[in-house]
Amino acid sequence: MKILGIIAEYNPFHNGHLHMLEEAKKYDKFDAVICVMSGNFLQRGEPAFCNKWTRAEMALHNGVDLVIELPFSFATRSAYFFAKGGVQLLNRTGVTTHIAFGSESGNLSMLKKLAELISEEPQEYKFYLQEYLSQGLSFPSARAKALENFLGIEDSELITLLNKPNNILGIEYLRAILEENSLINPITINRVGSGYHSNQLSNYASATAIRNSLTKNNDFKTISHSLPESCLSLLKRDYKLGLAPVLPESFEQSLLVKLRSLSVRELNSIYEVTEGLEYRIQQAAYISKTLQELRTNIKTKRYNLTKINRMLLYTFFNLTKLQIEEFDKSGPLYLHILGFSSKGRKILQEIKNNSEVSILNRASDVKNIYEKENTTIKGKMIALDILATDIYSIFYPNSTQRKGRGDFTTSPIIVT
């Protein structure tokens, strides 16, 4: 049996995602496609545009057979931990044979070479890395420069490769496969269309462009050619029901309340808050009136906006350094099923026969772990996912939709 794995956010699912999926399927005759997908909060430290069940349904209508949630404690992390959590989950299905990812490069051998180098961390490379970090560069910038110095390459494909977000994530997938001693075979597909941060609308527009256009114009016609019809219909449905959009700005006041109520000592316990940043965060919370001001007042040369966003999210959720240490040691401890197709139902049975971690394919399964294993690492991990859904739902546009405990009442989406 050959099973293709994909790690994604689908925020929302668009034509570029569909292209990658269709191209990956041409690589071999796969029996099914499993997607490990972020929940209601994403790798850039922001809420998803629409909830995890809607995004799972989009995927199931467009060639994915089984959607598994990537726990909050990995979905909202830096590229390395996001990739590692996703690869660990695919490994723990016990059935995944391949993983496909998009990259601007499409050069798997070059990406593998860099993944091996970063994973091995030669002393000379580590020296350059620390040197650039000490100069106040962000980690991604310092790493790129360290690799350039170590390999003795300038103005080459390597420099271009290291500046592209999908290439960077691809390197981290390959690195995770190496470090996990995984037998999963990697496939990379050339990314098509606009860049990740581009606001240009086209047949292959970025998710950023789609979200920004819809938020600004509130007109589905402007994005209709950028995503599959099924996804457009689901977005329209959620807008009509008042389930979307959920925007970063929705959290503005709640976040400021949270930050102003915390002591420096409490801030210092939060994951990623280091090097005295707790003082900078507290001061910024006192003088900032908006989320944009808050980010700007915290930002430094070393800490870019994405890192700041994640740090603020961890603070909002009281995610501490000690919790993260526990989660990283264990890796994901359950497969929370968000949805499946007819083919996915059969693969789910294969997973039950092969996986060594808990499989949560009913809402009651989630509730049982939360109530009966709340002192275990698994219980703490899923408690964060449940809290993420509870908090996310508060910011639905329609107040009648804002009930909590959605993970206890929402069954997996079934698309036949």
Automatic annotation (TrEMBL):
Binding site for ATP: 7-20, 102, 166, 191
Record keywords, A-Z: ATP-binding, Cytoplasm, Ligase, Nucleotide-binding, RNA-binding, tRNA processing, tRNA-binding
Domain of life: Bacteria
Classification via Gene3D superfamilies: HUPs
Predominant location: cytoplasm
Protein name: tRNA(Met) cytidine acetate ligase
Cellular-component GO terms for this entry: cytoplasm
Native source species: Candidatus Syntrophocurvum alkaliphilum
A Pfam short name: HIGH_NTase1
Purpose of the protein: Catalyzes the formation of N(4)-acetylcytidine (ac(4)C) at the wobble position of elongator tRNA(Met), using acetate and ATP as substrates. First activates an acetate ion to form acetyladenylate (Ac-AMP) and then transfers the acetyl group to tRNA to form ac(4)C34.
EC number assigned by the record: 6.3.4.-
Membership in a protein family: Belongs to the TmcAL family.
Catalysed transformations (reactions): cytidine(34) in elongator tRNA(Met) + acetate + ATP = N(4)-acetylcytidine(34) in elongator tRNA(Met) + AMP + diphosphate
GO biological process, one term: tRNA modification
Localization (cell): Cytoplasm
A GO MF term: ATP binding
